[in-house]
Amino acid sequence: MAETLILHHNDPSPFSEKIRVALGVKGIAWRSVHIPNMMPKPDVLPLTGGYRRTPVAQIGADVFCDTQVILAEIERIGPPPKLASGLDWAVNWWADRLFFHTTMPIIFGTIGDSVPEAFLKDREQLAGRPFDPKAMKAAVHPLKAQWRAQIGWLEQQLQSNAAWLSGFAPGLADVAAYMNIWFLERNLPDVAAELLQGMGETQAWKARVKAVGHGRSTELDSKAALDIAKAAEPRGGIDHDPTDPIGVAPGGKVFVMADDYGRDRIEGVLVAANPERIVIAREDPAVGELNVHFPRAGYFAGPSLSGPSRLGGNRGVGSVQQAHQRPPDLGRSS
Ligand SMILES: N[C@@H](CCC(=O)N[C@@H](CS)C(=O)NCC(=O)O)C(=O)O
């Protein structure tokens, strides 16, 4: 049971769909906790220390923030073949950032008028700047051409005798690219059909990825997930790289925050930092002691400037109250 992955997700979330399909590729059993698609998220933040984005995963008392580390865990616990080969992680980065930021404004620029005000306000808080469907509307036309250009790369790869972007079996490149097509198609099926015209290999591949499914999931109540965390011990044995640029030894107090949106500052005690991930220890009355894992690409991390450097005797370090602090020196205006 300790190695069962619990996914905190919701149906419309494209990043969640990426993980659901990755679980399908590996064919592993998982537990499904449905979380709100906007704040408040009272049963998520005690696990994450303030990270609010979707999805989040949990294995016992280890919590994984961001699809990069969730995918790395799926790779670790799932059976062969490997999910990631070649430059799949770089493809995943392109799909998360560049392709997603082409897809998302096409959707919200088109349906913006019908999006509830509360959702727009939430996304404004998430982005730290206006979430402006009117500006996105103006960008829809030029972005459609850019979206199709990126689909053209998939089409070329699939024409070169490959059933999958990752090679001979479905893998990370497939689930990452698919996420964006799924997101557009779910919200704007006509636009997706228009932009996929003539992309026959991509359409056939899309059907193959869809047929992979989501693996075997069983529902779990969000409170039960908190209880599972509380009853478990954070796992050990995570490699620390003493040459890591963070320059903090395990046991030092650190912060982690996303570099793009949802830049909530998460505080904790360094467990390990390596090129793949940074793991911090936190404690919260609702869940006890946890390890919280973040990827390195796309996150700032560094020594925490204030406060004690040890977790012991300091319950609530990195607790939800600190979640919305933004260090002025690390803010990005775009
Ligand atoms: N880099 C993150 C991005 C996740 C992300 O942007 N998720 C969206 C939903 S798909 C989100 O968090 N939206 C706000 C929310 O759900 O509260 C990842 O790979 O997990």
What would you note in describing this structure?
The chain has 334 residues and is of the alpha/beta class. The protein has a domain at 88-212: Glutathione S-transferase Yfyf (Class Pi), Chain A, domain 2 (Up-down Bundle), CATH 1.20.1050.10. Helices cover 41% and strands 17% of the residues. The chain contains ten helices and ten strands. The chain has a ten-stranded mixed beta sheet. Helix 4 packs antiparallel against helix 6 (133-159). The chain is globular. Mean pLDDT is 91; it is low at 307-334. Bound molecules: glutathione.
Defining traits:
alpha/beta, disordered C terminus, 334 residues, ten-stranded mixed beta sheet, Glutathione S-transferase Yfyf (Class Pi), Chain A, domain 2, globular
First-last Cα distance: 42 Å
Task: Give the strand order of the largest sheet, numbering strands 1, 2, ... along the chain.
Answer: 5-2-1-3-4-9-8-7-6-10
> Judging from the principal axes of the Cα atoms, what is the shape?
globular
Radius of gyration: 20 Å
Kindly state the percentage of residues in helix: 40-55%
Average the pLDDT over all residues and give the rounded result: 91
Please specify the SSE layout and strand pairing.
Layout: E1 5-9, H1 14-26, E2 29-34, H2 45-48, E3 56-59, E4 62-65, H3 67-77, H4 88-111, H5 117-127, H6 133-159, H7 172-187, H8 189-195, H9 200-212, E5 216-219, H10 222-231, E6 253-258, E7 266-273, E8 277-284, E9 288-295, E10 299-303
Parallel strand pairs: 1-2, 2-5, 4-9
Antiparallel strand pairs: 1-3, 3-4, 6-7, 6-10, 7-8, 8-9
